[in-house]
Structure formats: C-alpha cells, structure tokens
Specification:
By secondary structure, the chain is an all-beta fold. It contains no helices and 4 strands.
Amino acid sequence: MAKERFVEVYNQGIVNVVRIVVDTETGVNYVLGSHNKASGTGMTVLVDADGKPIVTPVS
C-alpha cells in the first residue's frame, strides 16, 4: 500500500471542525476548518509567530 500524502494529526469539534494535517512529503502543516459541514471548508498553511510555515520533520 502506498504511503498517505496527508495525515491528520489533530481534530477538534463535531459541527465546527478544525483539523491539522501534515504533508508527509514536505512536512508542511495545514489547518483545515469547516463550519456546519455544509457551509464550506477552508485550508491554509499553519504558520508560527514569525509567519513562517510550521514544518514537521519527515522521514
């Protein structure tokens, strides 16, 4: 089986959902948010206090 490109590392909420996913090739973290699961979803790079992307070391 092929390695998953994106893995979920954090999940919060049932109706208003926030997830953090990591790109297993680059290590870049993304935050995924949805409201009411029917009103749309947004995804963006998760950044630190300096505005730099948060990167998880990948092996």
